[in-house]
Amino acid sequence: MNRIKQCTLLLFLFSQLALADVSIARLESSVASFSQTVENSTSCGGYLRAGYMHSALGSPEKLSTNAVGAELGCSVAVNVSATLHLGAFTSIDTGLNHSHKDDMHGDFLNEDKGSYLMLGEAYIDLSYDNIAIRLGRQRLDTPHMDSDDLRIVPNLFEAYMVDFKLADNLHTGVGFVRNMSGWENGADQSHFEGVGDVLGGDGSQSWLAWVSHEGELLDSQVWYYNIPDHAQIIYVDMTYGAQLTNGISYELGLQLDWGEDIGDNRVGNVESKTWGLSVALSYLQLTTILTYNRNNSNEAALASLGGGAFFTSMEDQTLDAVEGERAEALVLGLEYAASESFILGATVGQFSASKKSDYDVEEIDLYFNYNWQEDVSLDVVYAQVNDTNLSGEDHQLRTILTYRY
C-alpha cells in the first residue's frame, strides 16, 4: 500500500511539473508577444546639435555664445487611429562661454543664460477617415506661428489642431493655440508663455482657420487668426512655378497680409495692409531671387510668433521690425547649388520707412548649407547690418551643426 501511495504521489508531482512547464512556456510566449508588439508600435528619434553665435546686433557690446543640445522624442501607436508622442529638449552650456553673463548672447540658453531641460512635445495624434487631429505641445508651421528651427531648440506651441482632407490636394482646418516656448517667445525660452504675452499683450488664446491647395503649377493658402483682445489677421499667398526649358525654370509669388486690433487693444493700435511679390529664376544650379514687401498703412506690419510671414525676411531684418509709416523692403538673392548636398548663397536687402530718417537699414547675408545623407547638416550664416540712422554697421555669425537620428 505504501508503494502504491508513493507511486501515486510521484505521478502527481510529475503531472504538476508538466503543467507548470506548460504555464511557464505560455507566460514566456505572452511576454515575448507583448514585447514584440510594444517594439513594433514604438519609434524614437530626434537630433544632437551644437551651435555657436557671435553678434553685435542690437547691443553696444559684442556678444557670443555656444551650446550643445538634443531632442529625444518617442511615439507609441495605441492603435491604427491613435498615437501618443513625448519629446524632451535640452540646451546645455558647454562651459566655454564668458564667465560674465552680460557678455553672453541669449538665444541658445534660458532666461538666466543657463542650461535647461524641458518636455517640449507632448501630444496625441488621432485620425478617422479624412480627419487628422493633433492635441498638445507640438511644432507648428503656419505663416504667423512657426517653429523656426534656427537655434538649439525650435519654437514649440501648445496647440489643438484639426485638419480636414477635402481632396488629395485640398485641405482645410481649425485650431486653437494657447502657449509658446522657444527662442522667439520674448521671455524665457525654456517655458511656455501665453500667445498674448508673447505679442506684448496679455492672455493665452488664439483661434486659427485655414484652407490650402497644392496643384501641379499653382499652390495657395488662406489663414485666419483671431487673438481675442489683441488682433485678427487674414493672410493669403499664391505661388506659381513652371519649367521653361530643361535647364530653366521660374517661380512667381504673391502675398497679402491684413490685420487690425480687436477688443481691448492690448497691443495698441494694429492696422496692417501688407502685400508682397517674389520672382525666382533658376538656370541649372543657379537661382536668382527678387522679393518685395510694402505695408500701405501708418502702423507697423504684423508681427509673428516665430519666423516671419513675409517674402523679404532675412537673418536679422523683417518688415515688421521697421519703425515708421508705410514700411517697405526689397531683397535680392543669388543661390548656387554646388551639389545635392551643398548650397551657397548671398542676399542683399533694404528696409525702410517712407521717411528714411525714421528707419533705414541695409543687410547683407552670406550663407552656406551642407547636408550629408539627410542625417548631418551644417548651416553657417553671416549677416552684416548697417543702420544708417542709429547704430551704424554691425554683424552676426551663426553656426549650427545637427545630427538627426
Description:
Helix content is 11%, strand content 54%. The protein contains two helices and 19 strands. β4 (116-128) and β5 (131-138) form a beta hairpin. The N and C termini lie far apart (72 Å).
Jot down its keywords:
405 residues, mainly beta, 18-stranded antiparallel beta barrel, 19 strands
Strand content: over 45%
Overall geometry comes to globular
Structural class: mainly beta
Count of discrete alpha- or pi-helical segments spanning 4 or more residues:
2
Instruction: Report, as a whole number of angstroms, the end-to-end distance.
Output: 72 Å
| Helix percentage | 10-25%
The major sheet is characterized as: 18 strands, antiparallel, barrel
Whole-number average pLDDT? 92
Poorly predicted regions are none
Radius of gyration: 28 Å
Give the strand tally: 19
Order of helices and strands: HEEEEEEEEHEEEEEEEEEEE
Task: Write a concise synopsis of the structure shown.
The chain is mainly beta. It contains two helices and 19 strands. It has an 18-stranded antiparallel barrel.
List the helices and strands and how they pair.
Layout: H1 2-41, E1 42-55, E2 63-79, E3 82-93, E4 116-128, E5 131-138, E6 156-167, E7 170-181, E8 193-194, H2 195-198, E9 206-214, E10 218-227, E11 231-243, E12 248-261, E13 271-283, E14 286-295, E15 328-337, E16 342-352, E17 360-372, E18 376-387, E19 392-404
Antiparallel strand pairs: 1-2, 1-19, 2-3, 3-4, 4-5, 5-6, 6-7, 7-8, 7-9, 9-10, 10-11, 11-12, 12-13, 13-14, 14-15, 15-16, 16-17, 17-18, 18-19
